[in-house]
Design a protein that fits this description.
Radius of gyration: 25 Å
Helix content: 25-40%
Strand content: 15-25%
Structural class: alpha/beta
Distance between the termini: 62 Å
Number of strands: 19
């Protein structure tokens, strides 16, 4: 009887015990997969700049043109800024899904006095602000990157992200990164508590020495001489004559110079070498955010000698980087693109025969527009919030329903009355628009807005300025040119793929940056499970396995 009871007890125990699930084998890329993926984003490298200078390149850009060339790719959404753009490159998803709708947005529910939220910060940290005194965080990125998906499938895969901007490093790297480094204005840094590898310490020492020394004006290559002239931008300010000459110790001038990309790429090269990326049993990935082109575009514009010099220098820098990768013997694949394009300073555009180019009127700033509207409606508190006179505009939350409707109607009328404004959309209009499909070059303005819209983060209104209206009212004290519009000069970027032995081809159709992640996933045989991506796989090899 005892024996029977024991057997029954054993049977009951077995029935109640959880079934042991067999752990799935780690993902292993096929033998045909590259051992290292190198993803490079050149900040503010428009398709227009690529087209203008592509024949002059002899280094890294020249090599990339021997692979798969998509000269007119698209950051297809309307919010053509650094953070949204970088969030699309390796997630395969547009800002409406990544949650990164802009570099900054307004959140009136934030506990701190500063109601502006930076895309790559944790605004809940006490004592922080969005502009300089913030804690870098990946919390606002709502989806995984390709590197994250790779690492989830096989923890042995190494994911590395290096950039000149924190938001570029974070948005391309994602939430689970082995090494993630960005320039904070003084040094390459990472999240608090992370150990500093020797290669980062060496890079910081070399960069500090570079900044400490003065730099003479750089030579002007022959291809750049037609662009070599000074331009007056108002307030006694002149751009176009300095050729990157800088005084000793000027970190800001260093950042807006070719030397900055040299430092970023050198650190990436050092991490490849020290970590032996691509030399393990699986495929590794490194993301590189070359940020100098953006700072140069903002500081000097896109059509001066400075931009021309920068691109020739970056071409040489990338050429040296690829030669280093060659020396490792690793089978690597490169994709290079940009987070957005850019527009030249309006003063030079007018001289070049574009009379519509102008600076936005100060009256279009949401705070100024809001004061006039509040006074007109008899409301004794701020009613409009927003960053610049182009993009999201937020209506105060502490209004009655009637007041909210009145403010919305007044704001729409205010902006539509300005000849500098092209479109004003309400959040309801944008929400009611289906997510766009088909070629991005054919999307309507409303569809471009939809691709950037995220309920809970986006504004109550979205204001688009007319083409070539720069949302910088005065260039006297800071940047002279910018981006961020829904127009193709800001949306169109090159997308270049290269791998040794790859057949060269060029495709002029409108592909998107969200196509990069699924294309690379196909190259390494990684299924992309939920969340489903917005992009599609691009066939890079004729006769190879079809894209899934």
């Amino acid at each position: 009887m005892k024996r029977q009871a024991s057997l029954v007890a054993m049977a009951l125990a077995l029935l109640s015990a959880p079934l042991s699930a067999k752990e799935p084998a780690p993902f292993t890329p096929p033998a045909s997969a590259p051992k290292l993926i190198v993803v490079i984003s050149v900040d503010q490298f428009s398709a227009d700049l690529f087209a203008e200078y592509r024949k002059s390149f002899t280094g890294g850009f020249a090599r990339l043109q021997q692979g798969g060339v998509f000269p007119s790719g698209y950051q297809s959404h309307a919010a053509t800024e650094t953070c949204p753009g970088h969030s699309t490159i390796l997630t395969g998803l547009r800002p409406e899904h990544t949650g990164i709708i802009a570099n900054t947005w307004t959140d009136l529910s934030v506990a701190r006095a500063d109601k502006v939220v930076y895309c790559a910060e944790d605004e809940t940290v006490p004592g922080t602000t969005h502009d300089g005194q913030y804690t870098v965080s990946d919390k606002h990125l709502l989806v995984p990157t390709l590197g994250e998906r790779m690492k989830a499938a096989n923890p042995a895969i190494r994911v590395v992200s290096v950039a000149g901007k924190d938001r570029a490093a974070v948005m391309m790297g994602g939430h689970n990164v082995d090494e993630l480094w960005w320039w904070n204005g003084k040094a390459f840094v990472s999240y608090a508590g992370r150990a500093t590898p020797a290669v980062v310490a060496r890079a910081n020492a070399a960069t500090a020495a570079n900044i400490a020394a003065p730099q003479a004006a750089l030579d002007v290559p022959e291809v750049c001489k037609p662009h070599d002239r000074a331009v007056q931008v108002g307030g006694g300010k002149t751009v176009g004559a300095g050729h990157f000459e800088r005084a000793a110790g000027s970190a800001s001038a260093f950042r807006a110079s070719p030397a900055f990309d040299g430092a970023i790429v050198a650190l990436a090269a050092g991490l490849v070498q020290d970590m032996k990326l691509g030399q393990g049993p699986t495929t590794d990935i490194i993301d590189v955010g070359a940020s100098a082109t953006d700072y140069i575009g903002h500081t000097y514009g896109t059509e001066g000698a400075e931009m021309c010099i920068q691109l020739q220098q970056l071409d040489a820098t990338l050429g040296s980087f690829f030669q280093m990768l060659d020396s490792t013997g690793v089978d690597y694949e490169v994709v290079l693109t940009a987070d957005h394009g850019g527009n030249d300073l309006p003063e030079r555009e007018v001289d070049a025969g574009l009379p519509a180019a102008q600076r936005a009127k100060v009256m279009l700033a949401p705070a100024i527009a809001g004061k006039e509207i509040a006074a007109k409606l008899g409301i004794a508190k701020p009613v409009l919030f927003g960053d610049i006179p182009n993009g999201d505009v937020y209506i105060a939350k502490d209004l009655t329903t009637a007041q909210h409707k009145a403010v919305e109607a007044a704001a729409i009328a205010y902006y539509k009355a300005s000849p500098q404004v092209a479109e004003v959309f309400t959040a309801a209009q944008i929400r009611a628009t289906p997510s766009p499909k088909g070629p991005p070059e054919k999307w309507t303005m409303l569809e471009r807005a939809r691709a950037s819209f995220r309920a809970g983060r986006s504004g109550d209104l979205l204001v688009f300025l007319q083409p070539r209206v720069t949302p910088i009212p005065s260039a006297a004290g800071g940047y002279v040119a910018t981006h961020g519009s829904p127009y193709d000069y800001d949306r169109r970027v090159p997308i270049l793929f290269w791998r040794k032995g790859m057949s060269a081809f060029e495709h002029t159709g409108g592909v998107e940056t969200v196509d990069i992640a699924p294309t690379l996933a196909h190259q390494i045989g990684l299924p992309l499970t939920a969340p489903k991506v917005d992009g599609r796989c691009l066939d890079l090899n004729a006769g190879g396995a079809p894209c899934r």
